[in-house]
Amino acid sequence: MWAELLCGLVIYKLLKRFFYDDDTFDLETSKSDSIFSVADRIQKVYGGKVFLGLRIPDADTSSRQNIDIVLVTKREAVVISVKDFPGSVTIDKYGSWIVTEKNKTEKFTDPVVEVKRQVGVLEGYLEQRGVALPDEYLSGKVILTNPKSSSIHSINFPSEVISFDQWVKLKPEQKSMLSSWIKDAFCGGKKEMQDAIHQQLHFILGSAPMWDRLELKENKNLLGEFLEFKGKPADIQSLRNIKRSKVSRFIIQKSSMFGLARSTIQLLYSARDYRNEGDSVSDWKEITVRSSTEVLFQPHNSSKVSKFKLSSITSMSLSA
């Protein structure tokens, strides 16, 4: 009996490696998932529009500032930094954050200082693009999404920090009747912005530099940089037009099986239209390639290049 179980386990691992020879199964703890989860919940509860994975040019450092989320409403815009600290959090006398998990302790730079820096970079970028924001319209918040980060020390968190205990109290039914801490965190009694400025802000953030977005099956999302396709020469030749200068998004429509030797994927894409935000769906083109064709993708918070078979992908959005 044990021999049969062991044999079955070996066969399962071999089949898993054969059919799923990519990094889809390594994403359970991806920070990208936390960012998408926070963005989805914030938009459902609070309304407005969210922009994810921005890479805003920083004139002072000649580099790009990574911003997890920007929530935009007519009352305000909030830069949100998502922190998934895997342990209880304390703040030392120097302002550093000490995260303790079991017997392991790790020190982090104050995320409130980081998010204030992001607010300044974003404000400068918007000014360069002709948007004059009202006073105090743009602010920053840090959201702690890991239940392990909840501790008795949360009372010492700065007002810019939304602790996990506060985060779990935010429910969709509160949209029209926000709790007091949400009002303090996001509303603050601010006046609504003029429609013209609001629309301009949407367009600029929608066209700002950002990470590429990979949407995988089982509702997994990943932010990072698309590098290239890998596969048979004929398939790579068919995919030659899918590059960020020409295409903003492609989707996997369906797959077909031609015996055990080969299965194919139908991929739809449309030409990038720089005149409008996003892409036009009026002229989708179709490509059929082997489902074993792979996408090489560099997650934004990892030094490792990951590979994914097209059969595990739902869609991919490419930044300009």
Automatic annotation (TrEMBL):
<feature type="domain" description="NERD">
    <location>
        <begin position="30"/>
        <end position="145"/>
    </location>
</feature>
<dbReference type="Pfam" id="PF08378">
    <property type="entry name" value="NERD"/>
</dbReference>
<protein>
    <recommendedName>
        <fullName>NERD domain-containing protein</fullName>
    </recommendedName>
</protein>
<dbReference type="InterPro" id="IPR011528">
    <property type="entry name" value="NERD"/>
</dbReference>
